[in-house]
Amino acid sequence: GYREPHYIGGPWLEGYRAARIDARLREAIAGDRATLEEMQAIQGDHHSNLGTEWVPRLLAEIDHARRQATGTPGAGTADARIAAAFLSERAAIEDVEARLAAWRDAGYPTPSAVESFYHTPAAADRASAVATTLFGTWFPRFLRGTLDDEGIPGDLSPAVTGDTYRMQTILQLVDGRGPGNPGRLASYEPTREESVFFDDARTPEVESSHEIALRALREALAFLRSPPTAAGEGGFGSPDPDQWVWGLRHGVRFESLLADFLGDSPMFAPLLDPFSISPAQLPLAPSLAMGDPRTGLRFFPRPGDQFDVDAANPGLDGDTFTHGSGPVFRMVIRLGPDGFRGQNILPGGQSGLTNSPHFADQAGLWLGNRTLPMRFTPEDVVAGATARDVFVP
Questions:
Q1: What angle, 0 to 180 degrees and rounded to 10, lies between the N-to-C axes of helices 125-143 and 90-106?
Q2: Residue 163's pLDDT band (boundaries 50, 70, 90)?
């Protein structure tokens, strides 16, 4: 039949997940390991695509601040303010630098580092979980400080989400800095050699991109040190970064569809709880002790961050990190000369009836990225049967 020479489609999302999937598929094929298990591993990929793109830029910003602090920037300039801000929290900022550099060297994993009935953390997980928290708290504040002060609505983007517009815009602004307008930005200001959008329109000073980046980091640190506003929400109430564990703020909520109509007000919780799946129904661990940071969580700690393959998007507001949407199932099927083999899992269970044993019986497996066999042949069905119904005329 007739085929067009070019495939044209869209609009598409940010592209981070697709690029990561493409890279892993190419590696699997080149290494002759495109197995069912490898496909499952790709589905469960929790590599931080945003971290890969932005941590090197943040490390460069910290290095820039250090150079200003050891130099002699002109009084009243953005670099002078950067130097003062860096020196006021030098130990904390350089600690962030070391943690993010180690995260980079580890390959940007985003573990929850929270012990639960579906996950046992590895020894190295805590360090990566803290780094994920640091980055996941800084980046939204950098976005906010650059794009939000002008009040430009995200829905001006012709793409499908405001995040698409914001991600494309912030990357172009940062990479468009330098002499001679290398990015050909319409917002380029020659005397500052960067976009005018980096100035915070809400302040009398003229900020630079470097100042906004460092300010966002200090704001992130202040937030993380602040007291929790509820279990699993707000800051950690501690100046010790080792306590800033990603999975204690990032996780999945299995909420009733009624939440879309009733909202998230606590007054509606008694109406929603019977139709939701939460740690109240599936305890994270037996007999949590008083003071255990897992106590009272209304979500299930999970790995992942914004735009990772195993979708776990916490959003980009930088204050709340849970998510209520994700993979509706994880299905992998292998076809070959030896027959059919398939695996799948649902986020909850097969029944929508709250009094059914199958309302939440797959949630624990889904949370741990584990699956059940798909029983395709009559022999497989019989082998996995739990009951038998006989129909007669």
A1: 110
A2: confident
